[in-house]
UniProtKB/TrEMBL annotation:
The lineage of its organism: Eukaryota, Metazoa, Chordata, Craniata, Vertebrata. Residues 1-19 form the signal peptide. It is found in: Membrane. InterPro entries: FN3_sf, Ig-like_fold, TypeI_recpt_CBD. SUPFAM superfamilies: Fibronectin type III. It is a single-pass type I membrane protein. GO terms for cellular component: membrane. This is Type I cytokine receptor cytokine-binding domain-containing protein. Keywords: Disulfide bond, Glycoprotein, Membrane, Receptor, Signal, Transmembrane, Transmembrane helix.
Length: 390
């Protein structure tokens, strides 16, 4: 039983490997440009392919995507055409599919062209205006030119236009302003080219305008309606209003800011007469693409009014702190404010004493002293007075 099962598995495995190896790889894989932005891959199969396997082959074309998994496309033709940007090195491969079999891919490697510009990006900032910018490199030629076109189909483009308004930095081309009578399409092909060492070199880009949207910052209008403040602003002039959301950032009475997300261009907030409101708004393009505006300027409404009880506490404390600071400052700088007057030197003092003129003492009259003297009457001598000798 076991030997029969092993024989069955081995037989099917050998059959699978045999059928896989019999499938031939495409040959003569070539890459060619059909215009400034579109290119074509073409290949063929060995003449004996259909004789070996009875199937209608299909092909899987693997296109390189920088930093991502290759983009795979399937076709029954031996050519593949598309319009796409081409800047870096890429390995373009084609695989043959027949029933459940797949062969080893045929690979065509395209060497990376010289980098004429770096940090290339385009910013969509209004309904029909866009700015593209770049940094120059050591290989940027003096005759650098900028061209663009719109796709009409997968394999064709509109007439190629040249940039009419270049942006300059230090007299060097570092950008281009694009203007369109109607809204920009979903895709835009751009090429910058120039002469390097006698040869024409080009870098091509495919951009999606809605992937980098940056409208001007909103202008907030404030209106008091009863107990509420009505905040409003205009929708950006890019796509439809439903494509936009908004971040509202506001604070009152110097409290921490409150940030909320809303999907319309107005909002009512409770009004407090004793508070000052600080309000900012940012527009976010997040349902039809990516991008956002800068924050609007801070709009102020009302004034902070401090209650009486708060003032009764804060004002004395503020005065006390001011007095303390004043005294500290005065003690620190008192010597500068009231400098000490220096004493005359001893030499100067001695000379002054030597030059003194001796002046006689002034006459001081004797002080008169008044005394009160009382005289008493002497009593008369008595007749009976003893007289000696008698």
């Amino acid at each position: 039983m076991y030997s029969c099962w092993a024989f069955f598995v081995t037989y099917n495995l050998v059959s699978f490997v045999a059928s896989t190896t019999e499938l031939s790889s495409p040959i003569n894989l070539t890459f060619s440009w059909t215009n400034e932005f579109c290119w074509k891959l073409s290949w063929s199969l060995p003449a004996s392919f259909e004789e070996k396997l009875n199937c209608s082959p299909k092909y899987q074309v693997n296109l390189p995507v920088p930093g991502k998994v290759p983009d795979s496309k399937r076709t029954s033709s031996t050519t593949y055409e598309t319009c796409a940007g081409l800047t870096g090195v890429g390995n373009y491969s084609v695989e043959t599919l027949c029933n459940t079999n797949i062969n080893q891919p045929a690979v065509h490697t395209i060497a990376a062209p010289k980098e004429l510009v770096s940090n290339f990006q385009c910013v969509f900032y209004s309904y029909n205006d866009m700015n593209c910018s770049w940094h120059q490199t050591s290989q940027t030629p003096d005759d650098l030119q900028f061209y663009y076109a719109y796709p009409i189909s997968k394999t064709s483009i509109s007439n190629i236009s040249m940039c009419n308004t270049y942006l300059h930095t230090a007299e060097k081309k570092t950008g281009c302003h694009l203007s369109c009578n109607n809204s920009f399409p979903h895709d835009l092909f751009i090429q910058v080219n120039g002469t390097v060492n006698g040869s024409l070199v080009r870098n091509t880009f495919k951009i999606d305008p809605k992937s980098n949207v940056k409208p001007p910052a909103p202008k907030v209008k404030i209106r008091k309606e009863g107990m509420y403040l009505n905040l409003s602003w205009d929708h950006p002039n890019i796509r439809r209003p439903h494509c936009w959301k908004y971040l509202l950032n506001y604070s009152r009475c110097q409290e921490p800011k409150i940030c909320i997300e809303i999907d319309r261009n107005s909002k009512n907030i409770l009004y407090e007469p004793e508070c000052q409101f600080e309000i900012q708004v940012k527009a976010i393009f997040n349902t039809c693409g990516t991008g956002e505006s800068d924050w609007s300027e801070v709009e102020l409404y009302g004034k902070n009014v401090w209650p009486v009880d708060v003032g009764a506490i804060v004002i004395p404390i503020a005065v006390f702190i001011f007095v303390i600071l004043f005294l500290c400052c005065f003690m620190k700088h008192r010597k500068k404010l009231y400098p000490k007057i220096p004493q005359p030197s001893l030499v100067y003092k001695d000379r002054t004493e030597e030059q003194k003129i001796v002046i006689g003492s002034l006459y001081v009259p004797d002080e008169k002293v008044e005394l009160n003297i009382n005289l008493e009457n002497k009593p008369p001598l008595s007749s009976g007075i003893f007289r000696p000798g008698f």
